[in-house]
C-alpha cells in the first residue's frame, strides 16, 4: 500500500463555514473541497438572490442549513431535493422556523421537502430572546441550522433541546465555528439549552480541516490489509472539531494504531496488535453515526463481533443504512441483526470476498465502507460515482495506493 493518501476537506465544517461566511459577508475560507455537497452549497448560496427555484439534491446539510438561512434572509421560492431528500424529514426545523416568523409551506407531504418559502416576518415587540424548542433525536442538523441563524432572530435565540440528543459533536462544531465568526453561544450545564446573542457575524478567515469520516475508510484498509500496512493521512488535526475523530479510538480495537505527526502535519496509521477486550465489543454510534458502516464491514470481515448501538438515525440518511448493510453484508457472509431493542450485532457467518458486487443505494458511504474489502479478495462496486458527495478522489486515491478501481457492470 502506498505511503500517503489525500483526504477531502470536511463537508460538515465547510458547509457551516459557507453559511457563516455568507451571513458575515466576508473573510477568506481555505481548503474548501471539491466534494459535491460543498460545491453545491457554494453554488446555491451564489444563485439564491437571482432565482426562486433551488435544489439541495441529496445533501442533508445543504437542505437543512439553507432552509434556515433562506428563511431568515427573507428568500421566496421553492427549495427541493432528490426523491430521497423528499423522504428525509424536515418538520422539526420547519416548525421551529415558523414559530420564529418564517412563512414556509409544504408542497407535497407535510414534514418533508419540497418547501415553499414565502418570506420572514418576526414579531417586533419582543422582550428577550426568541425561544424555540426542538427534539434532538431525529437530526442534529436542525439544531445546527437554527443556531447559525440565531443571531439574526429578534433578541437572539434561546433553544431548548428535548429528549435524547444525537450527533452532539456536530452541534459543538457549529457553536465553535459560530464563535470564530464572532457569535456568542452559551450552553447550560446539561447542554439542553443553548443561548445565542443577537448580533451580526464578523468576517473571519477559516481553513477547513481534512475529513475524519473519509479517513475512516483508510483505517479500514489498514485494519484489513496485510501485516505491516501503514498509511499517512495529511491534514488531520489532533484537536479536531469533528466527532468522527472517534474512529481513531474505535479502530484501536481492530489493530490500527494512530500517531499524530508533529506540527499538525496529519496522522500516521499502522497495523499493530489489537486491543484486548470483551468477547463481543459494544460500540455506541450516537455521536458518530457516519462511522457505523465502516465499522460494521471491518468487524464482520475480521470476525470480531460488535454490538452496535445508537444507529437510529441511520434509517433516514442517504438510504436506510441498516437495511442496506444487512443486504450487502449477507452477500459476503456477514450478518447484522437486532439482538435486543436498539442493539445490532455485526458478526461473521463465514466471511468471504470472492467477486461479489456491492450495491450502493445512492449512498457514498455504502461504496466507501465496502471498498476496503478489496484487501481480502476481488469485488465490484455498483455506481461508484456516488462517492462524489463527500470524496470525489476516493477511487483515484485507492488506485494510487495500489488498487485497481473497477466498476460493476
Ligand atoms: O451536521 C452535520 O454536518 C452532519 C450531521 C450528521 O447528521 P445527523 O445530525 O442527522 O445525525 C451526519 O450524519 C451528517 O453526515 C453531517
Ligand atoms: C448523512 C450524511 O450526509 P447528509 O445528512 O449531509 O446528507 C453523510 O454524509 O453520511
From TrEMBL:
A biological process term (GO) from this entry: aromatic amino acid family biosynthetic process
Record-linked InterPro entries: Enolpyruvate_Tfrase_dom, Enolpyruvate_Tfrase_sf, EPSP_synthase, EPSP_synthase_CS, RNA3'P_cycl/enolpyr_Trfase_a/b
Catalysed reactions, as listed in the record: 3-phosphoshikimate + phosphoenolpyruvate = 5-O-(1-carboxyvinyl)-3-phosphoshikimate + phosphate
Signal peptide feature range: none
Enolpyruvate transferase domain boundaries: 51-398
EC number(s) per entry: 2.5.1.19
Enzyme class, broadest EC rank: transferase
Keywords, sorted A to Z: Amino-acid biosynthesis, Aromatic amino acid biosynthesis, Transferase
PROSITE patterns: EPSP_SYNTHASE_2
Pfam families: EPSP_synthase
Keyword Amino-acid biosynthesis carried by entry: yes
PANTHER family: AROM/DEHYDROQUINATE SYNTHASE, PENTAFUNCTIONAL AROM POLYPEPTIDE
Family to which the UniProt record says this protein belongs: Belongs to the EPSP synthase family.
Name listed for the protein in its UniProt record: 3-phosphoshikimate 1-carboxyvinyltransferase
Amino acid at each position: 500500500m502506498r505511503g500517503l493518501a489525500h483526504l477531502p476537506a470536511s463537508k460538515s465544517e465547510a458547509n457551516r463555514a459557507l453559511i457563516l461566511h455568507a451571513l458575515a459577508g466576508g473573510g477568506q475560507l481555505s481548503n474548501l473541497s471539491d466534494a459535491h455537497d460543498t460545491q453545491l452549497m457554494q453554488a446555491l448560496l451564489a444563485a439564491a438572490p437571482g432565482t426562486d427555484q433551488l435544489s439541495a439534491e441529496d445533501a442533508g446539510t445543504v437542505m437543512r442549513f439553507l432552509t434556515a438561512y433562506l428563511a431568515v434572509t427573507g428568500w421566496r421560492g421553492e427549495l427541493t431535493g432528490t426523491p430521497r431528500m423528499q423522504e428525509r424529514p424536515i418538520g422539526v426545523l420547519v416548525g421551529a422556523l415558523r414559530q420564529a416568523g418564517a412563512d414556509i409551506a409544504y408542497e407535497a407531504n407535510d414534514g418533508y421537502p419540497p418547501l415553499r418559502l414565502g418570506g420572514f416576518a418576526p414579531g417586533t415587540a419582543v422582550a428577550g430572546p426568541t425561544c424555540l424548542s426542538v427534539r434532538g433525536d431525529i437530526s442534529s442538523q436542525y439544531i445546527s441550522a437554527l443556531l447559525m441563524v440565531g443571531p439574526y432572530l429578534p433578541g437572539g435565540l434561546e433553544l431548548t433541546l428535548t429528549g435524547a440528543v444525537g450527533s452532539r459533536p456536530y452541534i459543538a462544531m457549529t457553536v465553535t465555528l459560530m464563535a470564530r465568526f464572532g457569535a456568542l453561544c452559551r450552553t447550560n450545564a446539561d447542554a439542553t439549552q443553548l443561548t445565542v446573542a443577537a448580533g451580526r457575524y464578523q468576517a473571519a478567515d477559516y481553513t477547513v480541516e481534512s475529513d475524519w469520516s473519509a479517513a475512516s475508510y483508510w483505517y479500514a484498509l489498514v485494519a484489513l490489509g496485510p501485516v505491516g500496512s501503514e498509511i499517512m493521512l495529511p491534514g488531520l488535526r489532533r484537536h479536531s472539531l469533528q466527532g468522527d475523530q472517534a474512529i481513531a479510538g474505535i479502530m484501536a480495537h481492530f489493530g490500527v494504531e494512530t500517531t499524530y505527526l508533529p506540527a499538525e502535519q496529519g496522522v500516521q496509521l499502522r497495523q499493530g496488535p489489537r486491543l484486548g477486550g470483551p468477547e463481543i465489543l459494544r460500540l455506541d454510534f450516537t455521536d458518530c453515526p457516519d462511522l457505523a458502516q465502516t465499522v460494521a464491514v471491518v468487524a464482520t470481515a475480521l470476525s470480531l463481533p460488535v454490538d452496535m448501538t445508537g444507529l437510529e438515525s441511520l434509517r433516514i440518511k442517504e438510504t436506510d443504512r441498516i437495511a442496506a448493510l444487512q443486504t450487502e453484508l449477507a452477500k459476503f457472509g456477514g450478518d447484522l441483526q437486532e439482538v435486543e431493542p436498539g442493539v445490532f450485532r455485526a458478526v461473521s457467518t463465514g466471511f468471504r470476498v470472492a467477486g461479489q458486487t456491492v450495491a450502493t443505494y445512492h449512498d457514498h458511504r455504502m461504496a466507501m465502507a465496502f471498498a476496503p474489502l478489496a484487501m481480502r479478495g476481488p469485488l465490484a462496486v455498483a455506481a461508484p460515482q456516488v462517492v462524489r458527495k463527500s470524496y470525489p478522489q476516493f477511487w483515484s486515491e485507492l488506485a494510487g495506493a495500489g488498487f485497481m478501481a473497477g466498476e460493476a457492470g
